[in-house]
TrEMBL record:
Protein name stated in the entry: ABC transporter substrate-binding protein
Keyword list, A-Z: Signal
Position of the signal peptide: 1-24
One GO cellular component term noted in the UniProt record for this chain: periplasmic space
CDD domains hit by this protein: PBP2_UgpB (cd14748)
Length: 428
């Protein structure tokens, strides 16, 4: 080879090598905390989304980190934030919004919304889900795995009890009457099948909201600075729950969140009240025909919303924040939101997702998938305050104290109100 050509070739190779290096360096690392304790179906779906996103965006390296329960994930995310090495983004409870703002851990989403397309995307979510995503005129979270609470009921057991298998109980009275008819005992008088089961661990406050909402009372103001836990209508709602257990149609004491779907599948409970996020699990594992109904009403209908939002962390780099925003926008597009809803049972977060051919077809073939969506117009924001973990724990403890009989509903809620007022005083 001619010496000049050889030098040119070397120079070209060097330049290409530098370009390759620049490309490798330009790849933005996006650590992404996701609240699931173990692998399994949901982790597979998230891994699939990450792989597809990176294929479309080779300059971004998105790494899902499975961080345990929601409670464990926020602790890990805030610890990482304090150490200066936060995730770029994380899915955390929509109700963690005030806590994340108070910790100065997140940035508003609005600062990334630049184009008309971005604006249309942000306006495209269900208003009920934005109630826990916006405050003070800013958007802090983007709805992702969102839910409402629904009632699952065993149609076969309804038939056996002489109840209409195609109609869920519509009112508190209908619910109590149905639960009486659906409760079965063995020869020794031991209950082998409860009429109704409402879990009280983990999310007791949320299950209480499925009774306070239909009773026409809100537990907190929308700025998260005041609570009304000892309102007579809240006490009445908790008493209704306690009385189901007293009447023997609901298990006594505290009921585990995690075992409730299992008890339904094993036909130990004829009706359960839990998240729509359990729908795909029940569809796959129940060996009987079941129905899904909206929450039974009293003075009105309605449920709290629930579930997780995406947040972008303040101490990640501007490049990481921008890349996280790109992923959040990508994964909440109608087709993907539709897929996520079918894979998990969560509510697709935008009306546009329900207009996609895939979710339209799924809704026609499996109408229970549309119940939670149809409940959104009467849904309210999930209970959320400043110092949310501690205030929520007070309410969870009050619910459990009333259910296990150590306090009356009125006493438990008055005690919780007094302590919550003390915790929230500095935010008022």
């Amino acid at each position: 080879m001619h010496r000049k050509t050889f030098i040119q070739t070397l120079a070209l190779a060097g330049a290409l090598g530098t370009l390759g290096l620049a490309h490798a360096q330009a790849q933005v690392e996006v650590p992404f905390y996701y609240p699931v304790a173990v692998g399994g179906a949901i982790a597979k779906t998230i891994d699939g989304f990450a792989a597809d996103f990176m294929k479309a965006n080779p300059n971004i390296k998105l790494t899902p980190i499975y961080a345990g329960t929601y409670q464990e994930t926020i602790v890990k995310a805030l610890t990482a934030h304090k150490s200066g090495k936060p995730p770029a983004t994380s899915v955390l409870l929509s109700t963690d919004m005030f806590t994340l703002i108070d910790e100065d851990a997140i940035v508003p989403i609005d600062q990334f919304v630049k184009t008309a397309d971005d604006q249309a995307w942000l306006k495209g979510f269900y208003p009920a889900f934005m109630a826990n995503s916006q405050t003070g005129g800013k958007t802090w979270g983007v709805p992702f795995q969102r839910s409402t609470v629904v009632m699952y009921y065993n149609k076969d057991l309804f038939k056996q009890a002489g109840l209409d298998p195609n109609r869920a109980p519509q009112t508190w009275k209908e619910l109590s009457d149905a639960a009486q008819k659906l409760t079965r005992k063995d020869a020794s008088g031991k209950v082998v099948q409860y009429g109704i089961q409402i879990p009280s661990t983990g999310f007791g406050y949320w299950m209480l909201q499925t009774l306070t909402t239909p009773n026409g009372v809100l537990l907190a103001n929308d700025t998260g600075t005041k609570v009304t836990l000892d309102h007579p209508k809240v006490i009445e709602a908790l008493d209704y729950w306690v009385n189901l257990a007293r009447q023997g149609v609901h298990p006594s004491g505290v009921v585990e969140w995690g075992t409730t779907p299992k008890d339904f599948i094993e036909q130990k409970a004829a009706i359960i009240v839990t998240t729509t996020g359990n729908l795909t699990n029940l569809k796959a594992n129940a060996k009987f025909d079941f129905g899904v109904g909206q929450i039974a009403g009293n003075v009105r209908k309605g449920s709290p919303t629930g579930g997780g939002n995406f947040y972008i962390f303040k101490k990640s780099t501007p490049a990481q924040q921008q890349a996280a925003f790109e992923f959040i926008k990508w994964v909440t597009q109608p087709e993907r939101a539709a897929q996520w809803s079918m894979d998990t049972g969560y509510v697709a977060v935008s009306p546009a997702a329900y207009e996609t051919p895939t979710l339209k077809k799924y809704g026609q073939e499996f109408p229970p998938a549309l119940v939670a969506r149809d409940q959104l117009p009467v849904s309210v924001a999930e209970f959320s305050t400043h110092d949310n973990q501690r205030v929520t724990k007070l309410l969870n403890d009050a619910v459990q104290a009333a259910l296990n009989g150590s306090k009356t509903s009125a006493q438990a809620l008055k005690d919780a109100q007094r302590e919550a007022d003390r915790l929230l005083r500095s935010y008022q």
